[in-house]
Design goal:
The protein is of the alpha/beta class. The chain has two domains: 297 residues, NAD(P)-binding Rossmann-like Domain (Rossmann fold); 51 residues. It has an eight-stranded mixed sheet, with helices on both faces. The longest helix has 50 residues. It starts with 13 loop residues before the first strand and ends with a helix. The chain binds nicotinamide-adenine-dinucleotide. The site of nicotinamide-adenine-dinucleotide has 29 residues, from helix 1 and helix 5.
Length: 355
């Protein structure tokens, strides 16, 4: 698919990245700092965050790169992250928030499906650990909730304009979510991670409609396939041995396109090895035309378009109905009250006589 964009549109933007001390978050920061953005990395790992920040500053020669300690599972820490970011931002606002921090705690996944505690006899059985949900779901919900507060306050920004004929540089209001192939398919044995990433896709599918309407905020998601990064643990690598992995540069490219092009709203990009994809269903099967030729191939493709169109129409009609109902309720309510007032003496007399 065509991912052409003007990197100059990233210049001057203030971009917050959670989980920015390593992996995709650090790579996003390096790419966007090199393009002239103010990059604010938040991460629970202070030493890695400070090191990455110094490295990005040196390589990009951009001093507007900052690190703030952030634990996405802590509400206080997230509020502090956003408040400090606003202070550090040269224009006093936030253009893009990337909800990137994510973990997959494999032992926790095993313990969930094979309970180790004697729940019948233990006098005080501990609750199961759900760190993966805390970071990937609660953490993302906190980040997005705060983004929905701060982005519309970005000075000189206006409502997103997906219908604009050209991308616009300058102030923006953008939330970028990090889903996964686990948003689209179950990763058997990795239940909490799959649940969390399905939930992030659900968040995207709701907000892609309501956030532009309610707050003028555009919302996009990147769903990487298993990508060759630190995140990939040895057992997954072993299971996938002999098959191609996704490349981090494709994830960076997809995210950069979504950040740079202000018209991107409600877009869901999947990245992965050069697999064949049925773009209408999201199935990673070999797709052939009538003559048996493969008809789509590429490391980045759009997914879930098939449900966006009906969902868009459905939602637009729903909203239309809501507006009609609100207007009608005003008149109906008035008519009801007037009828009540006019018939009140008659009803009173009727009530007295029937006692
Ligand atoms: N790498 C892959 O194969 C892959 C595939 C699909 C989706 N993803 C998603 O991409 C995102 C980034 O993954 P990655 O591969 O760069 O991972 P990574 O492990 O390299 O980096 C994740 C970063 O998040 C930070 N972090 C963890 N818990 C945190 C917390 N409570 N508060 C703040 N920061 C915290 C870590 O310290 C780390 O710096 C995740 O959401 C992940 O689920 C990754």
């Amino acid at each position: 698919m065509d991912l052409s964009y003007d990197p100059a549109h990233i210049q001057g933007k203030t971009i917050l990245i959670t989980g920015g001390a390593a992996g995709f978050g650090a790579a996003f920061g390096a790419r966007w700092a090199a393009a002239g953005a103010t990059v604010i990395l938040g991460d629970i790992n202070t030493s890695a965050g400070e090191k990455v920040t110094a490295q990005i500053r040196e390589e990009s020669q951009n001093q507007n790169v900052h690190f703030i300690k952030l634990d996405v599972t802590s509400w206080t820490s997230q509020v502090n992250f956003f408040r400090q970011a606003v202070e550090l931002s040269p224009h006093g606002g936030i253009d893009t928030v990337v909800a990137n921090a994510g973990i997959n705690d494999a032992p926790e996944a095993t313990a969930f499906e094979k309970p180790q505690v004697d729940y019948l006899n233990d006098p005080s059985p501990p609750a199961p650990s759900f760190k993966t949900l805390d970071v990937n779901l609660t953490g993302v919900m906190y980040t997005v909730h705060l983004a929905l507060f701060f982005l519309p306050k970005n000075p000189d920004s206006s409502n997103c304009k997906p219908e604009s004929p050209t991308s616009e540089p300058g102030r923006d209001r953008h939330i970028l979510l990090l889903g996964s192939v686990a948003s689209l398919h179950p990763l058997m044995t990795q239940t909490p991670y799959t649940v969390s990433k399905h939930a992030v896709l659900g968040l995207f599918r709701c907000l892609r409609i309501s956030a532009p309407l309610n707050a003028g905020v555009r919302v996009n998601i990147v769903c990487p396939y298993y990508t060759d990064s630190q995140f990939m643990q040895a057992p997954v690598r072993a299971l996938l041995a002999g098959t191609p992995l996704g490349k981090p540069e494709d994830v960076i490219e997809a995210a950069t396109y979504l950040v740079a092009d202000s018209r991107c709203s409600g877009r869901s990009l999947v990245t992965g090895p050069k697999l064949k994809l049925d773009a209408s269903t999201g199935k990673l099967d070999v797709l052939r035309d009538d003559s048996g030729e493969q008809i789509q191939e590429g490391p980045i493709w759009e997914c879930y378009l098939h449900d966006m169109e009906p969902a868009d129409i459905f939602t637009q009609r729903m909203l239309g109905l809501v507006h009609v109902a609100i207007k009608a309720r005003g008149w109906i309510g008035w008519a009801y009250d007037m009828a009540g007032a006019l018939t009140w003496p008659i009803r009173q007399r009727w009530n007295r006589s029937s006692r």
